[in-house]
Amino acid sequence: MKKIITFGEIMLRLSPPIGQRLTQCKDFEACYGGGEANVAVSLANYGHNAIFVTKLPQNEIGQAAINTLRQYGVDTEQIARGGTRIGVYFLETGASMRPSKVVYDRAHSAIAEATTDDFDFDNIMAGADWFHWTGITPALSDQAAKLIEQACMAARRHGLTISCDLNFRKKLWTSEKAQSVMRPLMKYVDVCIGNEEDAALSLGFLPKGVDVTSGKTDSSAYHQIFSEMADEFGFRTVATTLRESFSASHNGWKALIYDGQEFYESRRYDICPIIDRVGGGDAFAAGLIHGLLTKPTQAEALEFAVAASALKHTIAGDFNQVTIDEVETLAAGDGSGRVQR
């Protein structure tokens, strides 16, 4: 079991019943989620000591978020309390040719307004093995971006492996702003995760001849760009998911990884129907972290991550509630879905 730190925002998610639009629903289904929190839940499910760090208001909604994390075995002792609100997002789940839609209500959330006085990062990172963050957190505010840098500096002082899922969100910032913040932060990153859009908009790297909408995902284009990213930023490992979006209900799903020497492409999954794709990338990141920590080769690590994220598409909510055995069964080739008795 490894000690893994994740730092970011957890939000209240409000969704209409499946099939309804935001404009027509009268009742919302409530749950909690957010990039780094989703990763922490997955890693706790895999048996790691997963510690999620954030700031939440000292009220019942903030406490409900903490209780939810504790339910899944996540360590919440380093969560700061204060501020006035928790971020909220509304999710309308798409189907067939109608895409899913997200509406954010997260301005001035507790973590977006947190300061250096809220966290003792040296204490948080002491004795840990891995630190994970995403590009969503520095997009929340300039203060949050400074906190990410301080967290990375502390993680580096304590010898942790640092991973970043680029996770560009156009509703939070522009590509120009993202690159001005993210590129300097990359010097701390050992494992870089992100799809082709993330790499283009956050770092300015775009693989040529790739069109995921039409299913064009030439792996050789990624091999070249992975090598360039590793050369420029010093990444030990670069990984990306490749999503072929045929419809909101039907996706192709695979991934690629590069460690400076070997370039590996995973098996492809045909996911149809999709129950909930939100959190799929976080499930991949958590699976990759677990795989790199426990598997003998990067190929096996990647296959675990892809299988874990494929399973997430079948589960409602942000969290990937699967076990190691379930993931390894799928990674071994058993995707039959037969009833287990």
Radius of gyration: 19 Å
**Outline:** globular
Helix-strand makeup class: alpha/beta
- The helix content, as a percent range, equals 25-40%
* N to C succession of SSEs: EEEHEEHEEEHEHHEHEHHEEEEHHH
Number of strands: 15
Question: What report would you give on this structure?
Answer:
- With 341 residues, the protein is α/β, with parallel strands linked by helices.
- Helices cover 35% and strands 21% of the residues.
- It has eleven helices and 15 strands.
- It has helices at 35-45, 60-71, 121-125, 136-140, 142-157, 175-185, 196-203, 219-233, 280-294, 298-312, 324-331; strands at 3-7, 11-15, 29-33, 49-53, 55-56, 80-81, 88-92, 101-105, 130-134, 161-165, 191-193, 237-247, 250-258, 263-265, 269-271.
- Strand 10, helix 6 and strand 11 form a beta-alpha-beta unit.
- The two termini are 29 Å apart.
- The model has no long low-confidence stretch (mean pLDDT 94).
Tags for this model:
single chain; 341 residues; alpha/beta; 11 helices; globular
Quick structural summary:
This protein has 341 residues and is α/β, with parallel strands linked by helices.
Sequence-ordered SSE layout with sheet pairings:
Blueprint: E1 3-7, E2 11-15, E3 29-33, H1 35-45, E4 49-53, E5 55-56, H2 60-71, E6 80-81, E7 88-92, E8 101-105, H3 121-125, E9 130-134, H4 136-140, H5 142-157, E10 161-165, H6 175-185, E11 191-193, H7 196-203, H8 219-233, E12 237-247, E13 250-258, E14 263-265, E15 269-271, H9 280-294, H10 298-312, H11 324-331
Parallel strand pairs: 1-4, 1-9, 2-7, 5-6, 9-10, 10-11, 11-12
Antiparallel strand pairs: 2-3, 7-8, 12-13, 13-14, 13-15
Helix pairs in contact: 1-9, 6-7, 9-10, 10-11
